[in-house]
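If it is no trouble, can you show me the amino acids of a protein and the C-alpha cells describing how it folds?
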Amino acid sequence: TISVGLSVKDVNQLIMEFLMFMMRAIVLCYPVYLTGSLGLSISWILLSMLVWTMWKNNRRGKDQRIDTAIDFLENEKDVISTELRAMNMPAWIHFTDVEKAAWINKILQQAWPFFGMYMEKLLIENIQPSVRSSSPHLKTFTFTKVHMGQKAPTITGVRVYTHELETREVILDLNIMNYECVCFFFQLQGMLRVILEPLIGQAPLVGGVTMFFIRRPALQVNWTGMTNVLDGPGLSHLSESAIVDVIASLMVLPNRMCFPLIDQVKVDQMKFPLPRGIVRVHVLEARDLVAKDTFMMGLVKGKSDPYTVLRVGNKQFKTKTIKETLNPRWNEVYEFVIHEAPGQELELELYDEDTDADDFLGRYSLDCGDVRKDREIDEWFTLEDIETGQIHMKLQWFSLHTNPALLQEESFDGLACAMLAVYLDSASNLPVSIHVHLKDCQPIITQTQTNDPNSYVEFSIDQQSQKSKVVFASKDPTYDECFTFFVHSVNNQVLNVEVKEHEKKSSLGKLTLPLVRLLNVSDMTMDQRFLLERSGANSQIKMKAVLRILTLEKQEAKVVTPPDRPEPPTPVPAQPVQSVPKEKVPVSSVPLSRTQTVPAPMPSSVSSYNELQAEYTPYRRSTFVGTEQLRSSPSTPSHMRRFDSHSLLSENSIDSSRFDLTDNASYPEAILNHQGSFGQIQLTLRYATLRKRLIVIVSGCKDLFSCSESGSDTYVRMYLLPDQTWKHRKRTSVKKKTVNPVFNETFEFAVSMEEARTRKLDVAIKNNKMLYKRERKEIGMVWIDMSQMDLIKGSTEWYELTLPGLKKTN
C-alpha cells in the first residue's frame, strides 16, 4: 500500500536508494570479513586504505588541473587580468589605452632636485606663516630643513583623452606610485589628472595647467630613523590619515592645484569651474544575490538583508535595508554633482546587514563619462568579486543651462530642478571679540582685550548645510572655497548665510538670499559684496552665487549624416560651355528642392595675440569666479544643431566649410530672389606627366552675383573629390568689390594620371563678407568630371555656375 503523500515514482526511488546503500555497505564490509576469515593481519586493510586514499587524491588533483586548463581556455582574458592584478603590475599592462611613461619618469628624476627647491620656498614662505597664525602655541613654528629625497615618484602609466573633449583642451591621467623621503618611505597609489587648457595659438601653446586627484589616493607609510615611533599600532593609522587629509585638502576633487602660464588666465578661474553636470541614479532592484544568513551552524542556508552604498568622490549615500530576501526592491533615487567626466566613477557596493560585521555581497563601478555620453542608461549590471548577483539601475545625465524657460518645478518626488553653486571669496570688517578680565571675580573691570575673531561661514538651504574652513585671528578673512546645493523650488527656497565665531559659535553676521532673485539677473549669476545683517556697521561678505537649470538632454547628433536624414542628391557633373548666348548654356547640376541643401560653411577664426591680451574668457565651461561667461542667449534659434567638430589644426580633419551649421541655413534673401545666371568661371586643367601633378589654373570669373552695391568680395575654393580634408583644400586670394574678379592663380594636386581621370573637381565661389553671418557663403558652384578630358593636352573653358537647391531662370 502506498502511503498518502508519496507517489509510485517516489516510492520506487526510495527503494532503489536503499538497495544501493546496502550494496555499498556489503562491498566495504566484505574485505574486512574476508581478511578475518583467512587469518590475515589488519595491516593489509590499512595498507589497502592508504593506497586507495593516495589514488583518490591523485585523481582529484588531476581533475582539478584539467578543469583549470579548460577554464583558462574559456576565460583567458579574465584569468590573466586577475593574475596581473594580484601581481600589482603597471597600469599599461591592464588597459590597452594606457601608455608607458618611462620617458616621463626620466624627466621627473632629472628635475626632482629643482622641485625640492620649489617646495622649500613654498613651505617657508606660504605654509609656515599660516601655521604660525593658526594658534598662539605655534608662533615659533619653523621649517629648519626641507629635503624631498633623492628618488622621484614613479608614473606607471599615462592615459590621454582628446576625442571625448573640447578641441582646446587635453586631459592626461597619470597613475602614480612610490615615493621616498629622508624621514620615511611611503607608497602612494592614485590617479593624478592633469588638464592642459586652454590651447592657444601663441607661445607657450598652453594657457594653464591644472592638477588634482579624482579619488583619495591610497597611502602606506614606513617611518624610519627617529620617526619610527610613529609606526606604532595606535599612531600608524593616525599619521597616514593625517597625510592623506592634507593631500585631499589641496589636490583631491573638488580641490585643484592650478598653474597659469599666461597673464590672461587667472588662478581662481581655473580652480573653481562649474561642474560638468549632474548624474541622477535610480537604484531599482537586485536579483540572485548570495545568501549570507545561515542557521544550525551553517547547515541550513537562509537569505540576506541587503542594502546598497553609493559613492562618487567624497559624497556617499546608503539605501534602506530590505529584510530576508535575495531579490530586493529599493526604488530609491540619488543625485551626484560631477566635476570631471570622464574620470569620476560611481562606486556601488552591496552588503548584508548583520548585528556584528556586515557581509559583502558584491560591487560595481561605472565611469560617469559613459553616462554623459549615452545621456541615459537603464540596464542590469553584474556584480563583481562575488559568485552571483545583479543590480538594476537607471542613470541619467543632466546638463546645466541658463535658460529660465527650461525650469520645471513640478513635484518629482523631491528631486532637484536646479543647482546652486556658491563661491565664497572673503569677508571684511567683521566685529571683533571683546574679552573682559575681572579682578577677584568682582564686577570691576580691570582690563579689556580686543581680538580679531576666528570665523567660519555656514551656508544652508532647508536641510542642506555646509561649512567653510576656519580662518584664525582676522577681521578680514579670506576663505577661497566653493559649495554646491541642489535646489528643489527656485521660487520658494532661500540661501541662508551666517558668519560665526569658531569657539563660541556666536553669530557675527547674517545674510538671506532668495533664489528667485537669480532668475532675473544676467546669466543667473550674482557676483558682489553683500552687506551683513546683525553685524558691524560696514561688515560685508564677498561671494558669487550661480544658478543653473538641470536639463535632461537627448543624444547629440554626429557629424556623419544620420540614417534617418537622406543625403542630398549628387549634382550632375558640369560640362564646359562656349562663349555663346546664355540661353544655350547647359546647367551644371540638377536643381534640388530648397529643403535639400549642400553643406553650409562654418567660419573659423584665429584670435590674435592682442585680442588674447585684452580679455581671457573661459571656453571649456563656466567658472564660479572671474570674467563674463560664455553663454547661450535665450534668443538663440531653437533649431540650432550641435556637431562633434574636428580640430582645424589637424591635417586630416574635415574642413569646416563642409559641415552644416543649422538645419535651415539659407542663402541671403537677395540670392533667393535672384532671377538669371550666377555667372561663369574660367579654368585651365592639364596634367604634368613628368612631375605627376594635376595642374588647375583659376583665371577668373565674370557676371557673378553682386552681394552689395559695390560688388562681392569673392574667392574660389576647390577640392579634388573625394578628398575633403583640411590639407587638401585649395583656395585663392580674395578679390574685393567686383563681380568680374581676375585671379590667375595656379594649384597642383599630387595624383597619378589614372587616378585623376576617376576624380571630380569641386569648385565653389564664395563671398568673404558673409563670414560673420549665419548665411551660406556660396554664390556659385560647379562640379567638373575629368573622365572625358584630354588632360595631357589640357583645356581652358568657361564653366557655368549654379547653386544646388535653387532653380535658375535664364
